[in-house]
Specification:
The complex is a heterodimer. Chain A is α/β, with parallel strands linked by helices. Chain A is 51% helix and 13% strand. Chain A contains twelve helices and eight strands. Chain B is 55% helix and 9% strand. The two termini of chain B are 16 Å apart. Classes of the chains: A alpha/beta, B alpha/beta. The interface between A and B is large, with 45 and 45 residues.
């Protein structure tokens, strides 16, 4: 089964709720009126787009309807989809790659969003593309986080650099980078401990890891992936903002799209902070992490 | 950043002042704001709808209390209704008449079940119980190891079985082990699962059959969005929850999920996780949660504090001085000291609606040291300089003041500019009869910007 179908399948729940609601909406009523727009807004809010984004999307849809003199409610869905895609950024945002040595990817996020799992899948993805991958276990805080990552590294078949639990994460990052150079790897992925973005001292620790990396290799980390749980609501914006300030987030990995969550808040994150979604996690399997494509995402959400 | 609900309601009701009764259109307008606030706090859409309908019923046609303006009145109704929906506090675990009490921890992936299991064990042990933790999460790599490490830290035993065992079998065996080891509580840590995964949900049902838990607790991430309703509903329908534990409440989420979960399950939120340490599990306070969801700040506390600390007679004199533009640097210092009596500045800012969230942004953090400098500069001036700085102060005097206060001429100049702005602003405020209490919108004090 192709990836697109898998994505569609995993988003079935979402589509059922979302698309059916919109379909219901437009089939029940043939005229485009205020009530219809209100209901459209409701549907968007239920997808976690947040109030502001929902209003904005409905406004844009309303403008387009006027401009194109649309009077068939059936076209509303297509117009809305256009705007969602537009707000997400029309093009796929690739992971930044370092042309002159190992690419360093740092993975950050709040507790429990799926950082470690995402790293396992990410390592698998790159390894299957023939890249040499190394993982740095810089989550030295959470109990057994290193063990968890070790299981993933074994499963995927890549090396792992680790210290003791409780040691300095920046030191792990340093050693990982040295090892990455010495072993000539293509890609170094560094795990960090989950932390709430409001804890100033923990965010400082993250900055330190970044400083150590860029001191040892100008330009590193080349990609800072913020892992966002699709189940999260509007707090995702605050997470993206504060992790962005502390760690210079360059992209988002959206996880747990296989539940009933819709992940609509990534639209607001892209709009407000211009951070693109680069990867999405759509299941528990090794192959269930893929590059994010705004078009496919919108398609999977809106197409029948 | 959204203005707080209180502020926006004040705005909405400005034109309403003096009316004795809330009409339907007044209420509708206010409820639009309430709806927006709740939705931005991630309260589920359907829950908001029901809630708004109930408020409307209560608010329309109500006599206004003399002591409250219409905005405050609506806030009060909303707050009361929200608090009652959140329910009273209930942090009791159902104990088995005949030990061991069996507790099942369930929830989505990453909600914080394992950590919360350890926190709960720690709390129960402090209450004199002898808990056993059972590691039944066989799916996530190293989840068993994680619980073992936490058990070691707490000195609470952890029941484990060899890899490949069935979670239900682990649950059953852990209860037997508790009986053998004279442990009076077993907390079973189950694997995280998506509520749409039928197979894994069925596994929990089987485990429930097998271990007959006295308490099934749903662990919910406080940052959860609209999905909270589906999650809570599904877990509750399939398992029959006894309560909820809200985790990661120490962040800056408004936590609307708490209301959603409560509304669809009717089950109490018993505890809240408020930190990374293993003792960071607290009793849940529904009233505080209601305020947090509304983004109301703790205005009441601030008003109380201000009344305690401000000398009313002095306030009257001050008002007159401002009116006549006789406000001097001495008075300014007095005012600063009054404010300082209220407590640390950043705490006060946190209590003011609208600034509560913004406080976390660094640019709004007030440097208390700066206030010390202000005091030093003013105290290094002669009485004449304090009374009429604009006319008296020249370059040489400013240099003297700077060296006397251990600051620089630039700092002295900055203070003078700020003082002048403050004076003008206060005068304007007075003229507009917009005092803090009546007017609603807080003017920006240049010292806090």
């Amino acid at each position: 089964m192709g990836f697109f179908n898998r994505l569609k399948e995993s988003l079935t729940k979402t589509r059922k709720g979302f698309v059916e609601k919109i379909d219901n909406l437009v089939h029940r009523r043939r005229v485009i009126d205020e009530e219809l727009y209100d209901e459209l807004e409701e549907v968007l809010i239920q997808a976690d787009t947040g109030f502001n984004t929902a209003i904005e999307l409905v406004e844009r849809t309303r403008r387009t309807v006027k401009e194109r003199r649309v009077d068939d409610a059936g076209e509303l869905k297509l117009i809305l989809k256009e705007h969602v895609q537009d707000m997400l950024g029309a093009e796929q945002a690739p992971v930044n790659i370092n042309m002159y040595g190992p690419t360093v990817i740092m993975v950050v996020g709040v507790n429990g969003v799926g950082k470690t799992t995402t790293i396992g899948k990410l390592a698998h993805l790159y390894k299957s593309q023939g890249k040499k991958v190394l993982i740095g276990a810089a989550d030295t805080f959470r109990a057994a986080a290193i063990d968890q990552l070790e299981v993933w590294a074994e499963r995927v078949g890549v090396d792992l650099i680790k210290h003791q639990e409780g040691s300095d994460p920046a030191a792990v990052a340093y050693d990982s980078l040295q090892a990455a150079r010495a072993r000539g790897v293509d890609l170094l992925i560094i795990d960090t401990a989950g932390r709430l973005h409001t804890k100033i001292n923990l965010m400082e620790e993250l900055k330190k890891i970044g400083r150590v990396l860029s001191r040892e290799m100008p330009g590193a980390p080349h990609e800072v992936l913020l892992v966002l749980d699709a189940t999260t609501g509007q707090n995702a914006l605050s997470q993206a903002r504060l992790f962005g300030e502390a760690a210079g987030v360059t992209g988002i990995a959206l996880t747990k799209l296989d539940g009933s969550a819709k992940g609509g808040m990534v639209i607001a994150v892209k709009q407000d902070l211009n951070i693109p979604v680069k990867m999405i996690g759509i299941g528990e399997g090794l192959n269930d992490l893929r590059p994010f494509s705004p078009g496919e995402f919108a398609d999977a959400l809106f197409d029948d | 950043m959204f203005a707080s609900l209180a502020e926006r309601l004040q705005e909405t009701f400005k034109k309403l002042r003096g009316k004795g009764r809330l009409t339907e259109s007044d209420v509708n307008e206010a409820l639009r704001e309430v709806r927006m606030a709740l939705l931005e706090a991630d309260v589920n859409f359907k829950v908001v709808k029901d809630f708004i309908a109930r408020i409307k019923e209560r608010a329309v046609g109500q006599e206004l209390l003399a002591s409250l303006n219409p905005a405050q009145h609506v806030i009060k109704i909303v707050h009361d209704e929200l608090a009652s929906l959140m329910g009273g506090s209930n942090s009791k675990i159902n104990l088995a008449p005949k030990p061991p009490t069996v507790i099942m921890m369930v929830g989505l992936n990453g909600a914080g079940k394992t950590t919360t299991t350890a926190k709960l064990a720690s709390l129960l042990r402090k209450q004199g119980r002898r808990p056993l933790m059972a590691a039944a999460d066989v799916y996530r790599p190293a989840a068993v190891k994680q619980l073992e490490v936490l058990g070691k830290q707490l000195n609470v035993p952890v029941f484990t079985m060899d890899a490949g065992e069935d979670p239900v079998a682990i649950g059953v065996a852990s209860v037997e082990s508790a009986i053998m080891g004279a442990r009076d509580i077993v907390i079973i840590d189950t694997a995280g699962r998506q509520e749409v995964n039928d197979e894994l949900m069925a596994e929990l049902e089987t485990m429930k059959e097998a271990v007959s838990p006295h308490e099934i607790l749903l662990v919910v991430d406080a940052m959860t969005g609209q999905a909270a309703v589906n999650v809570a509903e599904t877990f509750n329908t399939r398992l029959g929850l006894d309560g909820v534990i809200l985790t990661k409440l120490d962040g800056d989420t408004r936590g609307g999920a708490a209301l959603s979960v409560r509304a669809v399950t009717g089950k109490p939120i018993k505890f809240a996780g408020v930190g990374e340490k293993l003792d960071a599990l607290e009793q849940f306070h529904p009233d505080r949660m209601a305020e947090r969801i509304l983004g109301m700040g703790d205005m009441l506390t601030l008003i109380e504090k201000a009344q305690e600390n401000f000398d009313t007679e002095q306030m009257a004199i001050m008002q007159k001085k401002i009116q006549n533009m006789e406000f001097t640097l001495d008075d300014f210092l007095d005012q600063l000291n009054q404010v300082k009596k209220l407590g640390p500045i950043d705490q006060i800012l946190g209590m003011i609606p609208g600034l509560g969230g913004a406080k976390k942004l660094k640019d709004l953090q007030v440097d208390e040291k700066e206030l010390v400098n202000v005091e030093a500069i003013i105290k290094s001036m002669t009485p004449a300089e304090r009374t009429d700085p604009e006319r008296v102060l020249n370059g040489s005097r400013k240099r003297r003041i700077a060296s006397g206060s251990g600051t620089t001429v630039q700092e002295v100049n900055r203070l003078l500019k700020q003082f002048e702005q403050t004076r003008k602003m206060m005068k304007q405020l007075m003229d507009m009869e917009k005092t803090l209490k009546k007017g609603g919108k807080l003017a920006k004090n240049p010292f806090f910007s």
